[in-house]
Design brief:
The chain is of the alpha/beta class and 338 residues long. The chain is built from 10 helices and 11 strands. The strands form 5 sheets. It has a 3-stranded parallel β-sheet with strand order 5-6-7. A two-stranded antiparallel sheet has the order 1-2. Strand 8 and strand 9 form a beta hairpin. Helix 6 runs antiparallel to helix 7, helix 7 runs parallel beside helix 9 and helix 8 packs antiparallel against helix 9. The longest helix is centred in the C-terminal third of the chain and has 23 residues. The radius of gyration is 21 Å and the shape is globular. The N and C termini lie far apart (49 Å). The model has no long low-confidence stretch (mean pLDDT 90).
Length: 338
């Protein structure tokens, strides 16, 4: 896989069969994720806001259509910021906020790095190169399994900092500060066999979640998380993981990083005014109009849209007996607004 910040879909298809299809999957609708932005509508109907993102639309001659925000032209960046409140966070801010979480978890500061001012007037960090030590009663396995969520994730800079989303600068593995980067660093420091490493990495990915409205940003986030897996394994073992391992991580990502309206808990634009027609006993056509109670009353549990499903990997499904179960995201929230 390239070390550039833009993961080319043509290369994904060529190097890793079926992986792009997995990364485009939406498990709630059993279809693909959709564009959910009008930025591509000038390319034709298949790129309309409500159209699904299909492999052929972003590969071949279309292989450069989806690109990181920093590569988009300034006018498009500004329009997305205005219309969708799309604001990308500098890596040093992501680091500061991730440090706050780890300060609380470890009970001390400066575990992974020290924040500092740089000579050019910007801010950055200096990595702590010592092996991470864990407080009494906590272990590296526990840290890997600690559940983290990035809301409205965009290209997921809080999860993996492969590049600074504001400057486009590529960040080497040893300097990364994302939630997943930290978990993988801990795994790298404590595991030497590839089998144990893969098992631990799968646990790290199963406990790292994110959601996003716009389909192109969502795909970029998923691709970046997959690239992070491949890069870390390659650095650790001096070879790429097997295709089946890459496909399984892609499958976990496709569940854990999903498309959703974060204010409503549903698939974007799936709720609202609905019209149903039926024929009564007298052969007459009847029309029924319904409105979304959730939208009208601001009750997240009363929307008539499609509520987003996620996977709880740790609990068994009572119906299937499998070691994971599907749940609605909103069922994880406190029961308010009833």
């Amino acid at each position: 896989m390239r070390t550039g910040i833009d993961i080319l879909e043509n290369e994904l298809i060529a190097q890793y069969p079926d992986v792009l299809e997995i990364l485009l999957r939406d498990h709630t609708t059993q279809k693909n994720i959709f564009w959910a932005t009008n930025n591509y509508e000038h390319l034709g109907a298949p790129y309309n806001s409500d159209a699904y993102i299909l492999p052929e639309l972003i590969t071949g001659e279309n292989g450069n259509i989806i690109m990181p925000r920093v590569h988009k032209d300034k006018v498009l960046q500004q329009s997305r910021s205005k219309e969708m409140a799309e604001v990308f966070t500098p890596s040093w801010i992501c680091n500061t906020q991730n440090n706050l979480i780890d300060n609380a978890w470890f009970g001390k500061e400066g575990v992974f790095n020290q924040e500092k001012a740089l000579s050019d007037g910007t801010k950055g960090w200096e990595v702590n190169t010592d092996k991470i030590t864990f407080p009494k009663g906590k272990t590296w396995n526990g840290y890997v399994r600690d559940t983290r969520l990035e809301i409205a994730c965009g290209e997921a800079p809080y999860i993996t900092s492969r590049y600074d989303s504001t400057t486009g600068e590529f960040i080497p593995i040893q300097n990364r500060i994302g939630i997943l980067d930290r978990k993988l660093r801990v795994i790298n420091e404590n595991v030497d066999s590839s089998g144990e490493w893969l098992k631990a990495a799968q646990s790290a990915y199963k406990n790292t979640y994110a959601f996003e409205w716009q389909g192109d940003s969502l795909l970029l986030a998923r691709e970046s998380m997959l690239a992070t897996f491949i890069e870390n394994y390659t650095v650790k073992f001096d070879k790429e993981p097997l295709l089946k391992s890459i496909q399984y991580i892609a499958y976990i990502i496709s569940w854990n990083v999903w498309q959703m309206d974060g204010l409503k808990g549903v698939i974007p634009n799936s709720c609202g005014h609905k019209t149903e027609t039926s024929v009564n006993l007298f052969g007459e056509t009847e029309t029924k109009h319904t409105f979304c109670e959730g939208c009208e009353k601001g009750n997240i549990r009363k929307h008539n849209g499609t509520y987003a499903l996620i996977k709880d990997w740790s609990n068994k499904d009572s119906k299937t007996g499998k070691t994971s179960r599907k749940i609605r995201f909103i069922d994880l929230l406190n029961h308010r607004g009833k």
